[in-house]
């Protein structure tokens, strides 16, 4: 058995762990040729937290061990202290910028492949502790992150299930804009599906407060051409946020 990861032009096959190492093969996507076959050594008694591939870089993390960043072309290995890099719940690789995002305990961080922390965000505390990527959007230029976040403590309306939609610069960590019930908000439209109902059309408009629209968001999307943010909630309502 094996798992595999795709990067532009190559595919990494990760085979089942064998005692103190994991066998790896790098294949050409174009013709299936094996470009390289090698073993990566592991601590025999420690479980593997993750093995991730980004182009020629292999990220390996074992329980209570340092992060290892291996260049599979030349076998160069660097390590990041386990006190600096703790196992995240999810990754997003930024191919345009040669960086990667990590998500852990509602926080987002940006790293490079020298093992250096590039960005920590000043105001981007995610709503979901386990990183629900349905509520996160990265722009095509990979310069902005838009997420459903916890509201600031200064927002007195934050009781219940209301959050905020935060827009931050990935390279600086600065919060550029946010949608909250207490700020000057863009126009919001709301619609809901009524499939199976003979009394309503297939889609109909309803009216709710902005605070209600910011409750229990389960999906988020940004239309970069129209400059509109779409959010959906657990009630099946879709909101369109536009200037």
UniProtKB/TrEMBL annotation:
Gene3D superfamilies: YVTN repeat-like/Quinoprotein amine dehydrogenase (2.130.10.10). It holds the Pfam family DUF7899. This is Uncharacterized protein LOC118347893. It comes from Juglans regia (English walnut).
């Amino acid at each position: 058995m094996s798992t595999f990861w795709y990067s532009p032009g190559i595919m990494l096959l990760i085979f089942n762990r064998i005692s103190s190492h994991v066998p790896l093969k790098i294949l050409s996507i174009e013709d299936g040729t094996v470009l390289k076959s090698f073993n990566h050594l592991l601590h025999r008694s420690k479980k593997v937290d993750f093995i991730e591939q980004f182009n020629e870089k292999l990220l390996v993390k074992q329980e209570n061990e340092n992060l290892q960043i291996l260049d599979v072309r030349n076998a160069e290995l660097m390590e990041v202290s386990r006190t600096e890099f703790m196992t995240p719940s999810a990754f997003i690789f930024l191919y345009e910028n040669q960086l990667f995002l990590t998500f852990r305990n509602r926080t987002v961080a940006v790293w490079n492949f020298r093992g250096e922390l590039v960005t920590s965000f000043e105001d981007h505390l995610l709503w979901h502790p386990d990183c629900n990527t349905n509520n996160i959007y990265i722009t095509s230029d990979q310069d902005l992150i838009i997420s459903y976040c916890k509201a600031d403590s200064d927002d007195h309306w934050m009781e219940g299930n209301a959050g905020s939609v935060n827009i931050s610069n990935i390279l600086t960590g600065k919060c550029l804009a946010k949608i909250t019930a207490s700020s000057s908000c863009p126009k919001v439209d709301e619609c809901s599906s009524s499939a199976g109902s003979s009394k309503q059309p297939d889609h109909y408009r309803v009216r709710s407060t902005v605070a209600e629209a910011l409750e229990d968001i389960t999906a988020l999307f940004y239309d970069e051409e129209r400059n509109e943010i779409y959010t959906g909630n657990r009630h099946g309502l879709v909101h369109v946020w536009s200037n």
